[in-house]
Amino acid sequence: MMAPSSLSPNKNGEDKTSRRQNEVNKKLKYISLAILVIQNASLILSIRYVRTLPGDHFFTTSAVVMAEVLKVLTCLVIILMQNRGNVKNFVTLLYDSIVVQYSDTLKLAVPSLIYTLQNNLQYVAISNLPAATFQVTYQLKILTTALFSVLMLRKSLSKVQWISLVLLFAGVAIVQMEQEGGKQKEALTSTNQSYVKGLASVVVSCLSSGFAGVYFEKILKGSSASVWMRNVQLGIFGTLLGLLGLWWNDGAVIAEKGFLFGYTPMVWGVIFNQAFGGLLVAVVVKYADNILKGFATSFSIIVSTIMSVYLFGFHVDLIFTLGAGLVIGAVYMYSLPKPNTSTSSTSTSSSGHSKGVDSELDAFLPNPKTPGKKKGN
Fold first, then answer.
1. Which of 84, 279, 280, 325 has fewest C-beta within 10 Å?
2. Residue 147: CB partners within 8 Å, gap ≥ 6?
3. DSSP code at position 56
């Protein structure tokens, strides 16, 4: 018999490597949580801030177009990096993915149209609603996404998830009832903002977000296109549709005042956050599980509410706290894994292309889940 001590050095080495990797993964999770919270809260607060400042305001339609252009350029740079700077391969890949496989590209026209509409509606909603109220109400996108997933993809939800959706709706309803009769409505009226317009915008935005996400998942199942190439395809349509909306809404005024009218460093910050925030989250999600994402969303609601009190004089009372508390709890409950199912299926239900994201990020990010593996061993 082989002495057990002969295996101990190898095992000790593996244990040390495993412990070290677990520590790295833990740190990456906390970093991911911080990034998700900051991105979620800062975008809404910064949009609200720049849209309520006195003086000339920028055109939101131009901001949507600019964000799409920056997103496309960023994804193109990443694709070029993945091709090791080989311009010929890069151009060939773009031509093949966008032009030759034009049918796949055209499939993205519908979600791109909806996302463009959603981005414009978010500006309208945040311009007319307190940041905290928008943040709470916007969580209705979880409800719409879940319902569209059940209807279009025949997905099943656990009892806990159905209960969380009921609590979510109840929480949002309580917040809206409090806002409808409270001081916030008076404050909005005094600054020429329309609470009804803002509420309608966020509801339509939630519906469009839910449908677009599920439709995007449905049409891309089995697709071999990278997540960065998908974003390029979406961005091309998004830019064109955004320009069409810009011409329709603000064409004459922009022709007179200029595309970049009203742009300040703070406005550029909002645009960069909107353009790169989604891509950054796609990278971060590699290190964050579904529960962490739910916790980040819940925590960002708290951060937005606290910051709204200091930045905008937002009034928090018992009813708002109750409604927001229900929403925060519901978001966390919904993100919990289903009983007797693997976490991968839960993860897939929240993000249809998470596996595609992982495989693409592996090209230039370290994989925290497979330490010390060598090919051929």
1. 84
2. 210
3. P
Query: pTM of the entire structure?
Result: 0.75
CA-wise closest residue to 302 among 23, 37, 2 = 37
pLDDT value of position 372: 41
| CB-CB contact of 209 with 125 (8 Å) | no
CA distance linking residue 279 with residue 234, whole number of Å: 13
Helical ranges in 182-317 per DSSP H: 183-190, 195-219, 227-257, 265-284, 290-312
Q: What angle do CA 56, 304, 46 make, to 5 degrees?
A: 25
DSSP label of 224: -
Residue 104: which of 234, 244, 278, 239 has the closest Cα?
234
Hey, is 225 helix, strand or coil?
coil
Give the up-direction half-sphere exposure of residue 313: CA atoms within 13 A in the CB hemisphere: 6
Please give the torsion angle defined by the CA atoms of residues 62, 68, 74 and 75, in that order, rounded to the nearest 10 degrees.
-170
* Dihedral sign from CA coordinates of 136, 34, 41, 65: negative
CB atoms near residue 357 (< 10 Å): 18
pLDDT tier for residue 340 given thresholds of 50, 70 and 90: low
Residue with tokens 């209807």: 151
pLDDT tens-place string over residues 261-284: 999 999 999 999 888 876 776 666
Span 182-196, pLDDT tens digits: 555 545 544 567 888
Query: Up-side HSE of residue 160: CA atoms within 13 Å toward CB?
Result: 12
Cα angle 18, 20, 26 (rounded to 5 degrees) comes to: 100
Joined tokens for residue 128: 């007319």
For residue 342, pLDDT over 70 is answered with no
Contact (CB, 8 A) for 241 and 113: yes
Evaluate whether 373 touches 301 at the Cβ level (below 8 Å).
no
DSSP-derived letter for residue 351 is -
Q: Which two tokens stand for residue 193?
A: 């903002």
- Ramachandran class of 257: left when φ > 0, alpha when ψ lies in -120 to 50, beta otherwise: alpha
Query: CA-CA distance, 285 to 131, in Å (whole number)?
Result: 25
User: Does residue 349 have a pLDDT over 50?
Assistant: no
Burial tier of 369 (Cβ tally within 10 Å: 0-12, 13-18, 19+): exposed
